[in-house]
Amino acid sequence: MSFFDKIFGGKNEAPDQKSFWKKIESEEDLAKAIENSYHHKIAIFKHSTSCFISKTVLRNFEKEVENSDQQIDLYFLDLLAHRSISNKIAADLEIRHESPQLIVIENGKPVYSSSHEDISLSQIV
Fold first, then answer.
1. Which residues pair with 113 in a beta bridge?
2. Where are the domains of the chain?
3. What are the residues whose beta carbons fall under 8 Å from the beta carbon of 52, sequence distance 6 or more?
4. Alpha-carbon distance 55 to 99, whole Å?
5. pLDDT for 56
6. What is the pTM of this model?
7. What is the per-residue pLDDT for 18?
8. What is the pLDDT, as a whole number, of residue 13?
């Protein structure tokens, strides 16, 4: 591992997955997430595992969640592993793809979308 990989993380390095994330790895997972949005707000975090900015935003967002007492369904999508699902989200919800991106969904419809440094837990609650 190179010096820069140690500092910034290697391209193939998987993030330490926090227990509050529900992974979206299939169209069925996405459908279940959207279905849950009819019961309460959900949020999907779209993350590029090879992007330093995305890793930084993810870490900051996870710290916010860990320091919160809010009960929120948070879904995690690895863009590199599941690009077709990301494309489906963009098409079905009519939201332009960005990375990193947080999409808040309620009653099957996006109510908020943000990317990069605009991503915050306050957008969900």
1. 103
2. 19-123
3. 8, 9
4. 10
5. 96
6. 0.85
7. 80
8. 45
Omega prior to 100 cis, within 30 of 0: yes
The 3-state secondary structure of the chain, one letter per residue: CCHHHHHHCCCCCCCCCCCCEEECCCHHHHHHHHHHCCCCCEEEEEECCCCHHHHHHHHHHHHHHHCCCCCCEEEEEECCCCHHHHHHHHHHHCCCCCCCEEEEEECCEEEEEEEHHHCCHHHCC
Strand partners, 112: 104
The confidence score (pLDDT) of residue 72 equals: 85
Other CB atoms within 10 Å distance of the CB of residue 81? 12
- Low-confidence stretches of the chain (pLDDT beneath 50): 1, 3-4, 6, 10-15
Backbone angles phi, psi at 102, to 5 degrees: -120, 125
Q: Are 61 and 121 in contact (CB under 8 A)?
A: yes
The two structure tokens encoding residue 29: 């997972």
Q: Which CATH superfamily is domain 19-123 in?
A: Glutaredoxin (3.40.30.10)
In sequence order, the β-bridge partners of residue 47 are 78
